[in-house]
Amino acid sequence: MTAPMVFVVDDDDAVRASILNLLAAEGFEAHGFAAGTAFIGASRPDTAACLVCDMKMPELGGLEVAAEMARQGSDMPIIFMTGFGSIPMTVQAMKAGAIEFLTKPVAPDELLRAVRDGLRTDEANLAARRETSQLRQRLSSLTPRERETMELVIGGLLNKQVADALGVSEIMAKTHKRKVMDKMGARSLPDLVRYAERLQIARARSR
């Protein structure tokens, strides 16, 4: 598994180098960028990561970087830094998804704590993303009839009710249900319901 990664975006070469050296000394895998556009355009590995980003930069500032990440569907935790902190700016940063808003010069201990928090958060996010990806693959293996059965089953319908809705015998409804459970890797109905919620599948009917 690829090691967690910290991205540092700051147009101040000295500040960026100082942060990268601090992170390297603590054993973190870190990569620096002098501009938000360079970071946005770079490939990012499928691993837990967080972003340390300056608020005020030419071309793309921190908020613009966060907005572009959101547009791309990224939920990578962001730690914003600024030399000109204010309450309105802090509010903007938090609304943009920041987990921390630090004022320069940033205390090393504060930055390291924020980075560790960010990586822990993204490790959980990564596990959820991978589970969702696996669930989508399992869902794609269902036949149209099995997908219809799943939508009925997660509504809590009994086998007889599922059979009536499908226009098949109760034995055939049980067979479809068993195939759905097997293909989705669900050990119980609550498992199947949780998977359906993760995939945003609506119930066809409920009791």
Strand and helix layout:
Layout: E1 5-9, H1 13-25, E2 29-33, H2 36-41, E3 49-54, H3 62-71, E4 78-82, H4 87-95, E5 98-103, H5 108-140, H6 144-153, H7 159-166, H8 170-184, H9 189-198
Helix pairs in contact: 6-7, 6-8, 7-8
Give a short overview.
This protein has 207 residues and is of the alpha/beta class. It folds into 2 domains: 5-131, Response regulator (Rossmann fold, 3-Layer(aba) Sandwich); 142-198, Orthogonal Bundle (Arc Repressor Mutant, subunit A). Helix content is 55%, strand content 13%.
How would you sum up this structure, described in words?
- This protein has helices spanning 13-25, 36-41, 62-71, 87-95, 108-140, 144-153, 159-166, 170-184, 189-198; strands at 5-9, 29-33, 49-54, 78-82, 98-103.
- It folds into two domains: 5-131, Response regulator (Rossmann fold); 142-198, Arc Repressor Mutant, subunit A, CATH 1.10.10.10.
- The mean pLDDT is 90.
- Strands 2-1-3-4-5 form a five-stranded parallel beta sheet, with helices on both faces.
- 55% of the residues lie in helices and 13% in strands.
- The protein contains nine helices and five strands, in the order βαβαβαβαβααααα.
- α6 (144-153) packs across α7 (159-166).
- β4, α4 (87-95) and β5 form a beta-alpha-beta unit.
- By secondary structure, it is α/β, with parallel strands linked by helices.
